[in-house]
UniProtKB/TrEMBL annotation:
Complex and partners: Homotetramer.
Name the UniProt record assigns to this protein: allantoinase
Positions of the Amidohydrolase-related domain: 57-426
Coiled coil regions, renumbered to chain: none
Pathway: Nitrogen metabolism; (S)-allantoin degradation; allantoate from (S)-allantoin: step 1/1
Organism listed in the record: Streptosporangium lutulentum
Cofactor dependence: Zn(2+)
UniProt record similarity statement: Belongs to the metallo-dependent hydrolases superfamily. Allantoinase family.
Alphabetic keyword roster: Hydrolase, Metal-binding, Zinc
Length: 446
């Protein structure tokens, strides 16, 4: 056999989740890319053969909503710890949010600082969002040309003073500028006029202070301005079912708008949150069980297209047992796949659907070609996922920097057995990456 016919790696699975569906397959890898899809028992020669049997083979997940916080707030999270957590959870590409780092990624110089902080510290591939804030309209095109995947803005206070929200006029101007180079605007959509201070320390008071109507009204504003300017827009972390009718209507009318939700909105409910358990606090908030059912229906119907973590960690000290005062953010980067699969499988959804929501659609949103699918020509970013195994979450065994998560003690279905990045095993526990002696982090800055 000619040397050119020998693959670097062949992975076989009786449950390979391909763009055509779940089926037995042998995936052939050379030079970090998928070069062939064969029958499960096909005989391509390879330097390494892996037979997963009945363990599912998924494409690496793409999480387009991750707050890494480095530089500036690296004690909250950093590239080394965040990408370890990602790899352990089957996520092979993340896109970092422009806040809560210092400086925020709102100009080219700040992007350079962000890239320098990430260089050589990442176990998975990392892309970057830019920010749209008051006063940086002139920076948007240079950031786009420097490679950011799009621009995040807030319509309500972000929680950090260095990343203020846009007024309606500023939002329209940013949309027009971003549309001029066919960029993407991603929006934290809550109307500040309908937000208030919680009347007490409990979860019910916090939930009442951020009503679903605030999300709906902000979504309607984004839809109207996106239709007016022609910009591509995306609504972040939809928590309220009140947003779904205007989003569905906008899609029917041809407005270029998409929307996402998060594992915590699909798996957790307001009814179950104990008093003082501020590890559950996020903005917008976790809502009722009935609301959760509506979000699942919207995923099935395509009104919501992506499920991403909104991994927004902090130090434990900021999670004081008072919902009015605690930092709002949930750490779930390592747990998103298993949390979503636990609930999805219970509701009759398939691994193929979960892969579409958590890999293919986020990759398409961020323009990440070669990611999110097991396909010839794609990067060999792959995950062995034992879809029947159960595990109980122990926060002390998670890889993100600070031991805070609402999933602690929960029994979830599904275990990530192995993660490959461009055909190389990433082992966040034993070493940065298995390979030649002294091999270091393998992630690429996109």
């Amino acid at each position: 056999m000619e040397a050119d016919d020998v693959m670097d790696l062949v992975i076989r699975s009786r449950r390979a989740v391909l763009p055509t569906g779940e089926e037995p397959a042998a995936v052939a890898v050379r030079d970090g890319r998928i070069v062939g899809l064969h029958a499960y028992d096909a005989p391509p020669a390879a330097a390494e053969q892996v037979d997963l049997g009945g363990t599912a083979l998924l494409p690496g997940l793409v999480d387009t909503h991750v707050h890494v916080n480095e530089p500036g707030r690296t004690h909250w999270e950093g590239f080394a710890s965040a990408t370890r957590a990602a790899a352990a959870g089957g996520v092979t590409t993340i896109v970092d949010m422009p806040l809560n780092s210092l400086p925020p990624t709102v100009n080219v110089d700040a992007l350079a600082e962000k890239r320098a902080a990430a260089a050589g510290r990442c176990l998975v591939d990392v892309g970057f969002w830019g920010g749209a804030i008051p006063g940086n309209l002139k920076d948007l095109r240079p950031l786009h040309e420097a490679g950011v995947r799009g621009f995040k803005c807030f319509l309500s206070p972000s929680g950090v003073e260095e990343f203020p929200p846009l007024t309606t006029g500023e939002l329209r101007a940013a949309m027009a500028e971003i549309a001029s180079f066919d960029g993407l605007l991603i929006v934290h959509a809550e109307d500040p006029a309908l937000l208030g201070d919680p009347s007490g320390p409990g979860y019910r008071e916090f939930l009442d202070s951020r009503p679903g109507e605030s999300e709906r009204r902000a979504v309607e504003r984004v839809v109207a301005l996106a239709g007016e300017t022609g910009v591509r827009a995306h609504i972040l972390h939809v928590s309220s079912a009140l947003c779904l009718p205007p989003l569905a209507r906008a899609r029917r009318e041809g407005v270029r708008i998409t929307a996402e939700t998060c594992p915590h909105y699909l798996t957790l409910t307001a009814e179950e949150i104990p008093e003082g358990a501020t590890q559950f606090k996020c903005c917008p908030p976790i809502r009722s069980s009935a609301n959760r059912d509506e979000l699942w229906r919207a995923l099935a119907d395509g009104v919501l297209s992506c499920v991403v973590s909104d991994h927004s960690p902090s130090t434990p000290e900021l999670k004081v047992p008072d919902f009015a005062a605690a930092w709002g953010g949930i750490s779930s980067l390592q747990l998103g796949l298993t949390a979503v699969w636990t609930e999805a499988s219970r509701r009759g959804h398939t691994l193929e659907e979960v892969v579409r929501w958590m890999a293919g659609n986020p990759a398409a949103l961020a323009g990440l070609r070669g990611k999110g699918a097991i396909a010839v020509g794609a990067d060999a970013d792959l995950v062995a996922f034992d879809a029947e195994a159960g595990h109980t979450v122990d926060v002390s065994l998670l890889h993100h920097k600070n031991p805070v998560t609402p999933y602690h003690g929960r029994t979830l279905t599904g275990v990530v057995r192995t993660t490959w990045l461009r055909g190389r095993v990433v082992d966040p526990v034993v070493s940065p990456a298995r390979g030649p002696a002294g091999a270091g982090p393998t992630g690429t800055l996109l």
